[in-house]
Structure formats: C-alpha cells, structure tokens
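Can't paste images in this forum, so I'm doing it all in text. The chain is below; anyone willing to post the predicted structure tokens underneath?
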Amino acid sequence: MVILVTGATGLVGSKISEDLRSQGHTVHYLTTRQSALKTESNYKGFLWNVNEMTIDADCVIGVDALIHLAGETVFQKWTKEAKKRILKSRIDSTELLLRLLQENDHQVKQVVTASAIGIYPDDQNGKALRENDIPPTATNYLADVCIAWEKAGAKFQQIGLKHAVVRIGIVLSDKGGALDQMSKPVKLFAGAGFGNGKMWQSWVSNDDLSGIFIHILNNTLEGIYNGVAPHPIRNRPMMEAIGKVLGKPVFLPNVPEFVMKLMLGEMASIVLASQHASSEKIEEQGYSFEYPKLEMALEEYLG
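Text version of the structure:
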C-alpha cells in the first residue's frame, strides 16, 4: 500500500511511518519545509501550507489510504490566540485534504483521522468508557476541539471513503512526549502526583498506538476506536510505577490542584482530568497489545 501521512514527523506519526515502511508499505508525507523533503523509494515528501490552504496535489498520486494526524500541539499556554490556532490547524488541514480529494483524480479508499480521549467526561469513579458511551461529552475547551475535529473528519465518509477515528490517550515513548515530562522530576527525586492523585490515566505505548492505526488500515475498519491500553492506572500509582522502574522512589506529597492551575492556567485541565477509556472495541476487532500493562511499557522505555 501507499499511505499519505500528515504529522509524519511528530512523535506518533514518525513511529507509524517507520512501522509502515518496515512492513513493506510506501509512505508519502506532508511538510511545510522545503529542507524536510526527501525522495526515497518508500518515503517521499510533499509541501503543504495549511495557513495558505495550499498543497502539492502530486502527494496523492498512487495513494491507497490516508492517515491524518496533523494539528498544532495542545501542550502550550492556552492564550486566546493559541486556542484559535489549535482548533483552526485541525479543521483547516482536514478541509484542505478533503478539497484535495474532491478536486483531483485519486485511488484513496480509506482515511484514518485522529482525535483524543479528552472528549470523554472527567470522572474518577465511573466505568471505562467505550466509544459509544458519549454523549454526554466533557464540557471544556479540549473536548470542544475533539468534537469539531471528529465532525470535520466525518466528511471523508460523506465523499464515499471508508473512515475511522482513533481517540488517542496518553502516549508513552522513549523519544519524548508525556513520559519524558513525567519522568524528569522523578529522576531528580522530585516526583509527585497531581491533585488528589486519583485521576484515571488512560495511557498507550507509542508502539501499540502505531499498531492500532496500521491494524485499522490492514483490516479496513470503520468507526471510532480508543487508542488506549487495556489497563489504565490512576495518577499517583503511575508516578510511583515510574519511580520504581527508575529506582527513584516517589515520596513527595501530591502537587495541589490550585498550584497546577497557577502554573499551567486553563491547560491544567489536561493534567488534572480523569478520562477512563476502554480498549475493548479494538481488541474485539483482533488487535493484540504488545504492551498491555504499564510496567511492561515503562521497562521498555525507561529500563
């Protein structure tokens, strides 16, 4: 297969691209930088500019499927301008891809787009939520972004393509991202939980997240799937598990909620929210997790 990947240089996209190529597929990727363009037998770059709504239409030649991950990071101070950019980058990039497919001959049959588990209500006591357990959704900015993102992605189905969505959880990797930020204070014996420490952390290894996207492609799956591991864990035990693997015990009291809000502003909702998401649906479709338990992933990425 030839797969067009947006966000291919990010933490998740680079892993998916690497795995696709190792499995014999060819990856086309989009970039805003001329210097980032490569032309290899199974890896080829094309220019796009979402702000100007321009894209090299050659990127879709020979492409069978599309994985759309691109969007400005939510891990920044949520100023009024930043919030506009975060939402606009996701909606406009999706609209640009839709226009590309509507205005050019192509053989694309399937599109997989990203969303996030931030769409689920903040709940420390409820069951693990399946994809169809909402509404009601969370009522905050991040949930609004997810709702708009999924609504825009649904238009791929309206133009006759098979469409799937992956609601991504907390991604663990040895190449940066959440685990790097969580482990830094632990390494300095300054690790602690957040708030009351009881928030559910629906995590997933980057290896399995890539596996989920590729499993959806290989099996032409449609619908919404949670990109989370089978065994979520609460915040304080997660920090203690990181400390155990690093040999650095986590003994400090939790950082109070008001301190997190002073430090991070509205963005603290990402850290303090409790999203308890279920992996059952993707498992029912035949996906087998390489790292189903947190300790396995931590040993791989931190050990």
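The two ends are 35 Å apart (CA to CA). The longest helix spans residues 80-103.
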